[in-house]
What does this fold into?
Amino acid sequence: MKEKSAAVIFALFLGGFGAHQFYLGKTAKGIFYLLFCWTLIPFFIGFIDFLTLLFMSSKKFDKKYNSKFTKKALDGLDKYLQEYPSASAKSKHYVNVIFPTLNIKPIDIGDKIQEFLYDQLSNKGLEEKEEIRKYLHDGLGMIPENFDESLDQIYFSTYVDKYLEDEALDPQEVDSLISKATELGIEKYQSKEAIKIDFGFYMKNWELDNGIFGEITPDFIMTKNEVCLFRTEIAEIFEQKEVTTRVSYSGPRARIRIAKGLSYSVGSYNFSSSKETKRVSKGIGTLNITTKRVLFKASQKTLTIRHSAIVDLEPFSNGLMIYKSSGNPILIKHNKSMEIYQAINGAIRYMNK
It folds into this structure.
């Protein structure tokens, strides 16, 4: 890949020796400059070359000096798709028909091809890696920087996604991920503690699904076989209500006086109402989530929601909405919304097993 800025610098400082011509692949011209540099004529021509290159547009420079690189890259990619047994017709159409029309700068074509190959490998195994490297080296004549590392990351991510399909990660799967990360040289995930940082949510899901609840002491007496899964002393509870804010009446009507103090209305009334959603705070207090219920205790209020009455959960970044089979929805405001969601959802999943 030839860069215009480098060619300009070579022409300015070493133009008399033909350095820019050697750089641009014009070896014969470079030798000519070098052989006759003692006449000083090449220095004059080199300065003219410097001005020509300086004011040449990047598009024209790429077309003149980088078109061969672009063609070689596309030919190599086409060769890969022709010989690679898993290449789809869609991929071949993209490379042969769409790719050449994208007007990609030669300096960016390596990144674009690398992006395409990553996409090709996203759902394939590690055994593809060496084959892809072969085509990159033999066909394209290049190995993108950090390509091995990137392919390993893609493969490891695919490996993780397979385990997370059930939204849980069991101890055997954790050990398998550690083993695979060690094999691939991915240092970030070579211990259980490291896996837990990014995938602890799914490890906890497996524990809840299998009745491994831990030991959390609640601030109330629990029933038989009831276990506390989550507790916090600072949570705010809101009840979401729909209230009528205005009623409007309209329509033709008239009053006919029949006698003193007595009249009769004729016509009809049309009325419409406007409703507004309001959230009424139930106070700030202690929130306990057990295997059977959600219990909120404030100074003046106590609220209990049985898990069997919950029909849906909607987590937010700073809270959780609970929809019940009857009554108004309840919003729990707390910055550990995902932990609260996980505890309630896990209890419901375990209860329904």
Q: What stands out?
A: The chain has a mean pLDDT of 79. The two ends are 61 Å apart (CA to CA).
